[in-house]
Amino acid sequence: MAADIVLKVQNVSKRFSRGEMHDSLRDFVPSLFARLSGRARTGSVTSKDFWALQDVSFELNRGEAFGIIGANGAGKSTILKLITGIMKPTTGRVELNGRLSALIEVGAGFHPDLTGRENIYLNGTILGMRRAEIDRKFDAIVEFSGLADFIDTPVKRYSTGMYARLGFSVAAHVDPDILIVDEVLSVGDIVFQNRCLEKMNRIIRSGATVIFVSHNLRAIAELCPRSILLEHGKVTATGPSQEVLRAYLESSGQEGRHARSKDLIISGVKVRGSHSEGVTFNSGEKVWVDVEIECTGGSEPCSVVLFVNDDRQYEVFHTSTEYLGYPPISLKPGERFACTFEMDLNLAGGTFYFGILLYRFNIEKIVDRFFPAATIFVNSLPEVRGVVNPHPSITAFGPVAEIEPTKEAIKQ
Amino acid sequence: MSSSPNLRGALQELVARRDLLYMIAWREIKIRYKQSVMGFMWAILLPSVVVAAGVIVRYGMSTLSGKSISGQEIAGITVKGLVWAFFAGALRFSSTSLIGNPNLVTKIYMPREIFPLATILSQLLDLGVASCLVTVVFAVTRLGGSWQLFWVPILLAITVVLATGWALLISAACLFFRDVKYLVEVVITFAIFVTPVFYDVEMFKKWSNFLLLNPLAPLIEGLEKCIVYETSPSLPWVLYSGAIALASLLAGFYFFKKWEPAFAESI
């Protein structure tokens, strides 16, 4: 293995048997006899086998941050378990070169009856540290967790948040050559999540190799230049994260179609930029949203509403033809209608979901709803984090004149 | 599952993770002592029960045969009772050592033999505590204390090796088949009758060699002989037990490592 390659996954497949599972001798021994005497139906076991991963290959260079993207059940957790050695691949090879630490579950191995201090030592050694090493890092771990006052309290009295904080603090101080992070960021509050992201950013900058698995697409795009996309146990895309994310969003966007049962329906929605038509846009660029409406039966006058949600499904904003001063649309059966919204995409980096409503403002009735009509990905900018990009800049920066001392200060 | 495990590599890994073994053993001990008001009484509770039962049995036998029970006999039962309590405890607790830690088995990679080994270590501590007590009693009553005591570490080491080999097998078997735990419980309960704890093998005259085939028997008998009766144990039988113990350890480690890749998906 070349010196700068720290992980090599070669044609790895993993099979789980969903067939007969014996977890007791009482079941196993009779079935053994049945099999020996030839009474069992052969082949019934293998037909229930399930391939969680099929022919997965990728390589990881030293110091690289690498993302693994995929829907639930695509095999993300399985590949991590094979890399960490928790499971062995059915076929193929996993070659590893360096110390590995996995944040697969924060605080695994904590014992509720032991104190925070004792659990730091226990969890630290579980994650691969030596005791002397923990002695050295103990103060830093406690400080990062912010739990100095509770360090001698049994962790069963901790809140969930405190528990997660202590677990992450220990894991973040392991100093691994390869760090594996799986969905930890989906637990805990926003403040804690941001803290974790920040720490991971620092770990990446310090030259560690990171494998990051998450539903948080924005985090993957920010942290990892390169990714693979897993779908049903197979690698369907690999390369720069932006492209892989586009492939993921395109394939998952197929599933959000609305039911075509109404008289007045949204027949097409397209988001395009000045030079691109697709899912990846730059923050601040001008975009157009084309909406097409079709009337198939009896019609009613309605307006078109455009709304945009962020990746936590909070609405970022909505607008409508009504707000923008256009009258309700009335169509006759068989007629089609199109309108285009133009706007500046003043959004911060991340994933955004566009939805379209056909709405009667006067009687507050939703005629048709199409969500997510389009999913877009906004390239992140170094100067803004969050949801919107108001294009901030600094207009003053430097020392200011001293504040005049108060009368009391002069007296003294 | 079919490929044979790399035992040398596994051993190196185990040595590298010795701090983890220490911490897991420490956790097991700490939890046991923390949760009970009795504290260190735990360590001597089970051995005391075994010894008390042995004394009652011996007293019953002596009244039948008309001879009174001697102090030496009680001392012998104490030694045997302690060793038996260690051995039975090690096997009993090893059956839950893996299935009691599902989070660590499925979520984090580590050499899993650390769990049964930690069980052995924590049981050894209990044996140590109880032995200290017994040593004090023996010293006060001026029992034992000959040069034959040099056999004690050898015999104890063989006992630990034997227990470790079986503990590895039992812990892995319990992971795959949940009812092995009950089987182990039943076997331990009845094994005390075929192991010379309450009696000596000499009582069975020509059948005594048959009883010594139980690999634990020569060890228990030997410990009693060298501590209480100041005579050396039978060398061939000690060698026999040593060979079985070594074979058990090798087989236990081999099969444990062979089955280990399937642990996470079977637990």
Description:
The complex is a heterodimer of chains A (412) and B (267). Chain A is an alpha/beta fold and 412 residues long. Chain A has nine helices and 17 strands. Chain A has helices at residues 25-36, 76-84, 116-126, 131-145, 160-172, 190-205, 217-223, 241-253, 407-411; strands spanning 5-17, 49-61, 65-70, 91-96, 100-103, 178-182, 209-213, 226-231, 234-240, 264-273, 280-282, 286-295, 303-310, 315-320, 336-344, 350-360, 365-379. In chain A, the strands form four sheets. A six-stranded mixed β-sheet of chain A has the order 5-6-7-3-8-9, with helices on both faces. Chain A has a five-stranded mixed β-sheet with strand order 11-17-16-13-14. In chain A, strand 8 and strand 9 form a beta hairpin. Chain B contains twelve helices and no strands. The A-B interface holds A 16, 22-26, 28, 81, 84-88, 100, 102, 104-105, 108-109, 111, 113-114, 118, 121-122, 125-131 and B 17, 19-20, 22-24, 27, 30-31, 34-35, 103-104, 106-110, 176-180, 183, 261, 264-266.
Within CATH, the superfamily of the largest domain in chain A carries the name: P-loop containing nucleotide triphosphate hydrolases
Structural class of chain A: alpha/beta
Task: Give start-end ranges of low-pLDDT stretches of chain B.
Answer: none
Q: Quote the beta fraction of chain B.
A: under 5%
CATH architecture of the largest domain in chain A: 3-Layer(aba) Sandwich
Strand content of chain A: 25-35%
Rg of Cα set of chain B: 19 Å
Q: In terms of per-residue confidence, which ranges of chain A show pLDDT below 50 for 5 or more consecutive residues? A: 42-46, 255-260
In total, the number of domains of chain B comes to 1
The total beta strand count of chain A reads 17
Shape of chain B: globular
Structural class determined from secondary elements of chain B: mainly alpha
Mean pLDDT of chain A: 81
**Broad CATH class of the largest domain in chain A:** Alpha Beta
Relative helix content of chain B: over 70%
Question: Mean of residue pLDDT of chain B?
Answer: 88
Helix content of chain A: 10-25%
N-to-C order of helices and strands of chain B: HHHHHHHHHHHH
